[in-house]
Amino acid sequence: MSDQEVSNNDIDQDITVVSEFIPKAHSFQSFVDHYGADETHLTRTDYIKHYFQKHCGSFSFLCCLNAILERIPLIRCLKDYKIRQNLYGDIMAGIIVAIMHIPQGMAYGVLTTLPPVHGLYVSFYPVVVYMIFGTCPHLSIGTFAVISLMVAQAIEGILSSPMHVINNGNETFSNESIPSLIDEKIRISTTLALLVGLIQVLLFFLRLGFLSVYLTEPFISGFTSGSAVHVLTSQLPLMFGVKSPRGIQGPFKIPKFYIKLVHIVLRRINWVSSAIGLTSVVLLYFAKYLNERFKAKIRIVLPLELVLIIIGTVLSHFTHLHEDFGISIVGEIKRGLPPPALPTFDHVNQLIVPAITIAAVSFSISISMAKMFSRKHGYKVSSNQELLAYGMANVLSSFFQCYPNAGSLSRSVVQEGSGGKTLLIGGFSSIVLASVIVALTPLFRSLPMTCLAAIIIVNLKGLIFQIKDLIFYFRISLLECILWTMTFVSVVLFDVDIGLYVGICTSFVINTVRTQKPRFVTLGQVDTTGIYKNIVYFPLAHQYDRIKILRFDESLYACNSVFFKRKFYELIGIQNIQSPIIPYGKSKDTHARESPYKCVILDCSPFNYIDTVGVKLLVDIFHDLNKRGIVFFLSECRFEVRQKFDVMKFYEKIDFHKIYVTTHDAVEAARDSLNHELLNSSAVFVPVTHS
């Protein structure tokens, strides 16, 4: 026997030994036949019938009644209420939050360019409605700086007047000063509240509460931080006791505003108003700092803003600040609750876009806080039920001269930390606020406007300090950093509504980029296990000769199909490069490179779904690789993907036995295929010797 024959016999013997130790991989069809259940393919008509039979087949009067009562969470709260455990904490929390509502309501009411009492209305009526329909006991509904600013801009857009507070250095802010203009603003704000509520109720009926996930945390942080800059800017003229610069429109409104404000302040600053305002800011900020630092020992949140209002009112009344020093004051405030009145529909066409914007922003801010508290305390918050609660709060309160409302983080944190546990916190808070509105509002006539401006500025601390989030997002994700920056810069340099649209578009583009160009990685086997990992992060993972294992970390659909095809061929070493028209240098040797692999395995486990374009692409790749002598395997296809394969008749166009349950099964099948190919090639090329 020649040396060549001995060598060939050794090869055959080695291949036989290897084959004995490689288990026979079963295709997906054999797995389904043995373990799977029969799949019933329902037509669209049968699916609709099945859905209605499942959800509507047990209709009865009690079933309908329970469904309605479940939409009123207050009933379940009263049914399960534990007086000894919850009553004292709810009463204390209600009183403390009501005390916060009074100064914040008046201050944010002024921010909307409405009389301060309307901020108190928003602190009362929506709280009562949310207590009935809401699901988060720790969320404080009412006035909020960003929403108040957006309401002011909506009113400004209708009246074509500056968005700043109606005030004059020598005038009192009162309902009698310009009654027709104020009445028109009230009508606009109530119509806006009604539209916002109707939009949110419509979203509830369409069950679109999940849309809040698209307004991501970086977007909300950048948007609220930029809006806080606008709010701060609008309060500075009140702090210095000067008129607000007028006629500033278009891009770069904030820089233009500050240039004009500096000129006005240098010429007409009211030193008394400035001293009162700056002193109020410093004392309130320092007192809040001490309150936060020692709240564990004090256990009661001190009503610092209310104390400031009382001191400012008393000081202004007895020292005649308005008459002697020209300091703007609140003026006469209507006593009592307003009678119900139907909002007008005069400006619906002009208000529909601001209403959609405010509805989206208020819902996103409120639901994010509600879910934060629900995770912390372990109760359930329903996005759709919260939509109903916010919508009903806006719709019903619009009949009582209220503008749109939202949740406030500062009040909600106090409400949570004050010991309240149930929805009845809002009820006790409303009792205190109703008493103030009915009996005590005239006492605030002499309150300096600069004190309200100081309250707004200090409460903006949390929103303005969110600018630090930019550093956090830069460390975590460059794309999230870009989203925050684009939103913040566009809000500050242009306007709140433009910043909102820019932020949403940027968020959409970023999400699209993430799905269009996801990771496409090469996998290797970890030791002798059936685990396959990315070779970049697991460099010791073993790769087999002439076998390429790939994983596309995203669903395959039309938007990323081009990237998938280009990257797929690049990873398996196939590059069809056209030679230049005029050859030069190394370009003369340019030619289409063929793949060094004989088997390619695609791990489909990240595919949550696949569309028709993705299925056709896999078919084209299968046929193209088949022409090149490369076997294409699929593994770990989900049920939704396989269902799409069935509909598209995928299995009729490719070899069904090339689909495997696990990636390890596909690898074993590929190794078995290569061994058979090696055996066949050895049998063909063994030379025949003659004796």
From TrEMBL:
Keyword Membrane appears in the UniProt entry: yes
Domain STAS: 537-670
Subcellular location(s) of the protein: Membrane
Regions that span the bilayer: 87-107, 127-152, 192-215, 269-286, 298-318, 351-370, 422-441, 447-465, 498-514
Matching CDD domains: STAS_SulP_like_sulfate_transporter
Keyword entries, A-Z: Membrane, Transmembrane, Transmembrane helix
Membrane-protein topology: Multi-pass membrane protein
Protein name: STAS domain-containing protein
Taxonomic placement: Eukaryota, Metazoa, Spiralia, Gnathifera, Rotifera
